[in-house]
Amino acid sequence: MKPQSMSNLFRYFLLSLSAAIILVPFYWMINTSLKTNAEILRIPPTLFPSEFRFQNFADAIVKAPILTYLLNTVVVALSVVAISTVVSVLAAFAFARLNFRGKQILFIVILGTMMVPQEMLIITNFMTIADLGWMNTWQALIAPYCINAFNIYLLRQTFKQVPDELYLASKVDGVSNFRFLRKIMLPLSKSTIVTVMILSVIWIWDTYAWPSLVTTKDSMRLVSNGLQNAFTNDSGRIQYEIQMAASTLVILPLVFLFLMLKKYIISGMVKGGIKG
Question: Which residues form a coiled coil (predicted)?
Fold first, then answer.
């Protein structure tokens, strides 16, 4: 076999293995959501349900306020997307086009925050929220996510691909920075902007530790922490089949969102990673 063929074969093997590692948890979640509890606990486990129990999905909606959790998550996600995108666009434009003292140092500091685990800041943020009296409020769920260093970095990389000559020509014509951003930069960076918006939605959908700390009322919980203890019977046993059915329901919006906008995500990532 030719070396090129061996290289392609090895590449496809790695891609297939990576796809399997990613897809197996999703398959197991859906598989579990269609089983009875007795079948879930059976040893050895079965790869397919002996009987497809769709009643689990109806029970999930009835036994827990999933719609409330979903609505809360959508409200927080849309708020974070709106605020974070505006902040990221303005900050990225400043780092890409404007000249001011300490710009490079400040940008390095922002990049440095990407290497700091969120868990290191969670206690400080919690104390701040508690001192402000924001427990069980929308502000507590939204405020920590309004600034995203990765979004700023990705947009800044995209903005830097716009030729400098175009920016200088606009300044000669008396075009303001804001108008240049609105008329030139934003249309050319549409795919990257859509990408950072989608990433913000996924970030909120997946976050668990923070909403668990700042929400004690069931009416303010998000899907990530609301489903944790929502499905237990009178004896305290977790009803895994219903929990997995609920998890399947709440993940569907993200799947549809990704399938509809995947071309923007790929294009945005490519544009954001070309020029340093």
Answer: none
For residue 4, CA distances in Å to 9, 14, 17 come to 9, 15, 20
Long-range Cβ contacts of 216-221 (<8 Å, 24+ apart):
216/135, 216/136, 217/136, 218/65, 218/68, 219/65, 219/68, 219/72, 220/72, 220/136, 220/137, 220/141, 221/68, 221/69, 221/72
31 within 8 A of 40, measured Cβ to Cβ = no
CATH superfamily of this structure's domain 65-272: MetI-like (1.10.3720.10)
- pLDDT (tens digit per residue) in 128-143: 999 999 999 999 999 9
Task: Report the distance separating Cα 68 and Cα 12, nearest Å.
Answer: 43
> Six-digit token pair at 66?
């999933």
Q: Are 247 and 33 a contacting pair, CB within 8 Å?
A: yes
Rounded distance, CA 62 to CA 55, Å?
Answer: 11
What residue ranges do the domains of the chain occupy?
65-272
Provide, rounded to the nearest whole percent, the portion of the chain with pLDDT above 90: 29
pLDDT at 61: 87
Q: What is the pTM of this model?
A: 0.83
Q: Are 84 and 151 in contact (CB under 8 A)?
A: yes
Alpha helices in the chain (DSSP H): 3-33, 37-40, 55-63, 66-97, 103-113, 122-132, 138-142, 149-159, 164-172, 177-180, 186-188, 190-206, 209-214, 223-226, 240-272
How confident is the prediction for the chain on average, in pLDDT? 86
By CB atoms closer than 10 A (0-12, 13-18, 19+), residue 22 is exposed
